[in-house]
Amino acid sequence: MANIVVLGAGLGGTIVAYELREKLGREHTVTVINKGSVYSFVPSNPWVAVGWRSEADVQVDLAPVFAKRNITLRPEGAAKLHATENRVELTDGSMVDYDYLVIATGPELAFDEIEGFGPGPGFSQSVCETGHAGQAKSAFDALVENPGPVVIGAVQGASCFGPAYEFAFILDKALRDAKVRDRVPMTFVTPEPYIGHLGLDGVGDTKGLMESELRDRHIKWITNARVDHMTEESVVAEEIGEDGAVKERHELPAKFKMMLPAFRGVSAIRGIEGLTNPRGFVIIDKHQQNPTFENIFAIGVCVAIAPTGKTAVPVGVPKTGFMIESMATATVGNIARLLAGEKPNVQATWNAVCLADFGDGGVAFVAQPQIPPRNVNWASEGRWVHAAKVGFEKYFLRKVRTGVSEPFYEKLALQALKIDKLKAVTFD
Known about the structure:
Blueprint: E1 3-7, H1 11-24, E2 29-33, E3 38-40, H2 45-49, E4 59-61, H3 62-68, E5 72-74, E6 78-82, E7 87-90, E8 95-97, E9 100-103, E10 108-109, H4 130-145, E11 150-154, H5 162-177, E12 186-189, H6 206-216, E13 219-222, E14 225-231, E15 234-240, E16 246-253, E17 256-260, E18 263-264, E19 296-298, H7 321-339, E20 352-357, E21 362-368, E22 376-381, H8 384-402, H9 408-417
Parallel strand pairs: 1-2, 1-9, 2-5, 9-19, 11-12, 11-17, 12-13
Antiparallel strand pairs: 3-4, 6-7, 7-8, 10-18, 14-15, 15-16, 20-21, 21-22
Helix pairs in contact: 1-7
């Protein structure tokens, strides 16, 4: 019998736990370590921030679901990974031993790297966590009562740009519904070298699509932007040229601000030699396996992925939902092979299928694989995307509540669309 521990119960951690239980049966133990017992559907956070959803609408209590699936939940959270000892220290001082570990922690949000940035002591809002989005709703209500200029976007080093665009357009729609949009000048500020880069050097014509949406909604933009600091009433950003010099310094009035931060690895794993890079992200090979600690795998936002190319301002690579699910499936397959005395040979495709909601429309794109060069590079827009995103939210939350990672009809649909989670098996 093997003890398999999953660190984190977000999208990747929850799905990998369900797949481990399904693939391995009850012969082996599956334990999930997480801070609390609540799963939050993060893609819905922009809706929470404008009151289109409540926090409770997009959350699931994992305790009863895990109990039915014979998955042990440790809600104390991890304090420190002791990789050389094959154990995880929890915040209450207790230890959990493992034979195999899957790190799916997600990121730590690096608000502290910019003066005045972030919710709480800072002056900006966030949709990175559902609790943050709930706080942003109060700030949104205040904006409706007392309209003024808004800055939306992402800061240098950010890697998740889709939610920034989503929130800009959703906020535009919510302000129009409230009949105050005419009193709210909006500026989109991003480190991307061009609008629609997304950390992926674009997908299809996302540059043209996103620029058109911004123009249609009277949202100005600044690219190659490096945020210097924020105050209660402004965002100070420098526009950087290709030579690295400051082209222009902008002091943007901002009564409401929502900018996505850079990420780093969580403190429980950061700084472990051979496991993480200097930023704290987990180093993995093509099988999701760490080369130094071969019984450790990693999936999701916590993994280290090199940028797609050089940019004037640092831009990271996003880890999208379907890409993370493909990492989970590959990891489960490789752990199963190790338990059978075989070498890992399963590789995730890292394909991306994304729906970006704009409140009354949206953009969908398919990138196979997510990192260029690609076999499929497609993007489209329309009102159908909003309806599809709503449907997907309900569908995914149902998966989490029922403890099923991939119902048979999802498999059939993916086969029909020729979208695969795994590459053809290779033998090294």
